[in-house]
Specification:
Oligomer: single chain
Largest sheet: 6 strands, mixed
Distance between the termini: 45 Å
Structural class: alpha+beta
Order of helices and strands: HHHHHHHHHHEEEEEHEEHHEEE
Helix content: 40-55%
Length: 433
């Protein structure tokens, strides 16, 4: 590589290999093991490496907790940015020459430098934190956003000392192989049948293969660690080759193949949206003054219509003066106004019941059941009386709520306090920070 576009493309491919392709391959084996092995046996150049990758995710030595994911991330760091570079320099020292006597390291071909892990460097910390969390997501292990703790744990991992191998061949140019110039190639084109069969036996001996969750690259979710990993991975690769790094926004634009839209339909739509936003900011405007816009500049066509008001739902359908809600409304509960020890689910329930004269029967958050009125004993007390964030972290995993988030939303089922009839409250939004 000789510019940042190269390292970003390499980091994007590395993301796909580690967190998408390998888990998908493992799931393919779990679904049809016999057919998978039969097909793989006909690919001698890659079969051993494929089975080793599957074993790394489903074998007995796979990470079973987040600490194991951090250790794995630290070892991957050493492999990608230190050991591979050391092997490359072993094969092609700084004074190496081509067959015609010209220096091997010349022109756009820059000599690399190994990068040694430093827990105080931002890109080093980001790499191990993002890689560990991405692997944890693949293995359904609760992750963590405590970057300081992750960096400290990574620094404590024992990394085996690198020993260069004369058996490793590395392509000297693109004419030899389409692979990356620093990608190690086996000295033997055909993997050992004995080694392959032994690895397959290990794979078949696993009693229950877990179903993995391959990552699907999504550039627009800032909480999923995808762009974080690619940014850190690209910048570390750039550091190997003395290439100026790129910030997160630049990496996101290149890796996500974002094409800036200027004088296009996108710009026109943004302008129309802003016009409607001005009306909202001004306030007091009747719905007739707002407009839906329909645009096709290829025709060209511009059409506008009045929006339809959101349907209104009564809390108590049988009651004439019942509170009315739309799908845009929330019941707001602010727990930050009380002492931390009192920021409980019981406080949320008490607030809703007192304000709307209802009895809460069930509370859910996404696919998690937080409370049911038929619970009793220790489980009921554990959910109601502990601090709400502790309860949610126990259900969803530590760090489930980004540090910038202030609210959680619940779906509530409730009955009228007097008649016992079911009522239809809107979503409850609870401020926790």
């Amino acid at each position: 590589p000789n510019n940042i576009h190269h390292t970003i493309a390499w980091a994007r491919d590395t993301f796909g290999g580690l967190f998408s392709a390998t888990p998908e391959t493992a799931n393919a084996f779990a679904a049809k093991p016999d057919a998978f092995i039969t097909e793989l046996a006909d690919k001698p150049a890659e079969r051993v490496e494929t089975v080793e990758k599957i074993l790394s995710l489903v074998g007995p030595n796979r990470p079973t907790n987040f600490s194991g994911c951090v250790a794995w991330a630290r070892l991957v760091f050493a492999e990608l940015f230190e050991h591979r570079i050391q092997q490359l320099l072993f094969n092609f020292p700084l004074d190496a020459t081509n067959s015609d006597g010209t220096p091997f390291w010349s022109g756009a071909k820059r000599p690399p430098t190994p990068v040694v892990f430093d827990p105080t460097v931002a890109d080093h910390r980001l790499f191990v934190a993002s890689a560990a969390n991405l692997l944890a997501a693949v293995l359904a292990i609760p992750g963590s956003r405590d970057t300081d703790a992750i960096a400290s744990a990574a620094a404590a991992v024992t990394v085996p000392a690198f020993v260069p191998s004369s058996a490793v061949k590395i392509a000297a140019s693109d004419d030899e192989t389409p692979a990356s110039p620093d990608a190690p190639m086996s000295g033997d084109d055909t993997a050992s049948d004995d080694l392959f069969n032994a690895l397959v036996a290990q794979l078949r001996a696993i009693p229950a293969l877990p179903t993995l969750a391959p990552a699907e690259f999504e550039k627009d979710d800032d909480s999923n660690f995808h762009i974080d990993f690619i940014t850190a991975c690209s910048n570390l690769r750039a550091a190997n080759y003395a290439i100026p790094p790129a910030d997160r926004a630049t990496t996101k634009r290149i890796a996500g193949k974002i094409v800036p839209a200027m004088i296009t339909t996108t710009a026109l739509i943004c302008g129309l949206v802003c016009l409607e936003q001005y009306k909202l900011i001004a306030g007091g405007k009747p719905i007739e003054e707002f407009k839906n816009g329909f645009v096709n500049i290829a025709l060209p066509f511009f059409g506008f219509s009045e929006p339809i008001a959101a349907p209104k739902t009564k809390l108590r359908p049988w009651q004439e003066d019942s509170p009315v809600f739309t799908l845009w409304d929330f019941i707001e509960v602010d727990l930050t106004t009380v002492e931390p020890a009192q920021r409980t689910l019981a406080a949320v329930i008490a607030d809703v019941e007192a304000r709307y004269a209802v009895e809460v029967s069930m509370i859910t958050m996404e696919d998690k059941l937080l409370f049911a009125s038929f619970w009793g004993g220790a489980k009921r007390a554990e959910r109601l009386d502990r601090p709400l964030l502790e309860v949610l972290e126990g259900l969803c995993g530590e760090g489930f709520l980004p540090e910038s988030a202030m609210f959680v939303t619940f779906v509530v089922l409730a009955d009228d306090a007097e008649t016992g009839d079911e009522v239809e409250p809107p979503t409850v939004r609870v401020r926790v920070r």
